[in-house]
Design goal:
The protein is an alpha/beta fold. 50% of the residues lie in helices and 15% in strands. It has twelve helices and ten strands. Helix 1 (3-10) packs across helix 7 (208-225) and helix 3 (50-70) runs antiparallel to helix 6.
Length: 389
């Protein structure tokens, strides 16, 4: 199939937990089976309503905090102002699911295997196939994140100050309490609107840049991989990941399966086709844990691009508050690098109806297929490349 024919089947709203996601998953599986008999489904527990539950819960807790502060119930206010950031950190930093896991659902990562030598290296090429629809985008959220942190600090400081003042028989002025509490409530209300209200009232996103173009690239590459010699040394796995928009849970599950394997490299695709240039991501991870890509893989993709296009891939930083599936592999000690289109400041409106097909540059998607095919060929020529660099 051509890129355009693949996009015809992929570019439908496909949020986690939806029929659209299941439809696209079935198409990916069927297409892969046309190119390799080895297709695997890896089932994991997803949280398709995770961000909605998490942000709505945080808002409810902060409303309770405002009520407690207004009535001078400083002990309750202290508890609430401490529990909210704890839940947020557990959910977003450590991927525990005390709140988002209240409505779990099983989803599948889909893996097409193109076998090589048993003792040869394994190259994993991956992209997520789920979408999300929300208010705002990564740049909008990045602007609000510091305000959320400030609000949490102020809430805790106000509560503890109230306890301290009461110990000495004094009371915080009611106007001060209400003013600070009102400020604290604003960012949590904004985040609840971004993440919880958006999926309910906005026109669903088709997820063209995020990440339909990348999915089409890997399916197109599958056709090329069938032409490799039967004795090719490198095992290539095309991995289509669900739940990237839900804290990258799909890639976290798959990375956990890979971490004991030797000589494995992962190239993750994100927002491919947004411009006519590719770059590799210089750093990614979590708010408190940051990771750099594998030097060997960076060297491989840069040199391959240099040979093909006359210039190596540049390095780019992710826009604030943005993460990719690459972080799951890097956090678990697996050599990985994320490739994405060069787009100054990051493309806007990814989680909205604005992320439509007309934003994709099909020639760049074809160029990415050629690059990945050349990378596979390089590894086939030098099977020790992941071990020696």
């Amino acid at each position: 199939m051509s890129i355009d024919q693949l996009l015809d089947q992929i570019l439908i709203p496909r949020p986690n937990g939806s029929e659209g996601l299941a439809q696209v998953a079935a198409f990916i599986e069927t297409t892969l089976r046309g190119h390799t008999p080895e297709v695997e489904l890896h089932t994991f527990t997803a949280t398709p309503y995770g961000f909605q539950l998490l942000m709505a819960t945080a808002l409810v807790f902060m409303l309770a905090f405002v009520a407690a502060i207004a009535r001078g119930r400083y002990g309750i206010a202290t508890f609430l102002s401490a529990i909210v950031p704890m839940i947020l950190v557990l959910e977003t930093e450590w991927l525990w699911s005390p709140v988002s896991g209240l409505l779990p659902l099983e989803e599948d990562n889909i893996v097409g295997v193109f076998p090589g030598h048993v003792q040869g290296p394994t190259l994993v090429l991956c992209a997520h196939y789920d979408t999300a629809t929300q208010f705002g985008d990564h740049i909008t959220w990045a602007r609000w994140m510091p305000i959320v942190g400030l609000a949490v600090a102020l809430a805790l400081a106000l509560s503890l100050s109230g306890l301290w003042q009461r110990r000495w028989g004094r009371e915080l002025p009611r106007m001060l309490r209400l003013s600070v509490a009102g400020f604290v409530l604003v960012p949590f209300g904004a985040m609840a609107v971004f993440f919880s209200a958006g999926p309910l009232v906005r026109t669903p996103s088709l997820g063209a840049l995020d990440n339909g173009g990348s999915v089409a690239v890997l399916l197109r590459l599958a056709e090329r991989l069938t032409l490799r010699p039967a004795d090719a040394p490198t095992t290539v796995k095309l991995v289509f990941l669900a739940a990237e928009e839900e804290r990258a849970l799909g890639s976290w599950h798959y990375a956990n399966m890979l971490r004991e394997k030797q000589s494995v490299g992962v190239i993750n695709l994100e927002i491919v086709g947004a411009s006519d240039q590719l770059a590799y991501v210089l750093e990614e991870g979590f708010a408190l844990r940051r990771y750099h890509p594998s030097d060997s893989l960076v060297d491989l993709v840069r040199k391959t691009a240099q040979k093909m296009w006359g210039q190596p891939l540049a390095a780019r930083r992710l826009p604030g508050a943005m993460y990719t599936d690459g972080r799951s592999f890097l956090a678990q000690g697996i050599a990985a690098v994320t490739l994405m289109s060069v787009y100054e400041g990051g493309p806007r409106g990814l989680h909205s109806a604005r992320d439509s097909r007309d934003r994709l540059l099909v020639p760049q998607l074809e160029r990415t297929v050629e690059l990945l095919a050349a990378i596979v060929a390089s590894m086939d020529r030098d099977p020790l490349i992941l071990r020696t660099r």
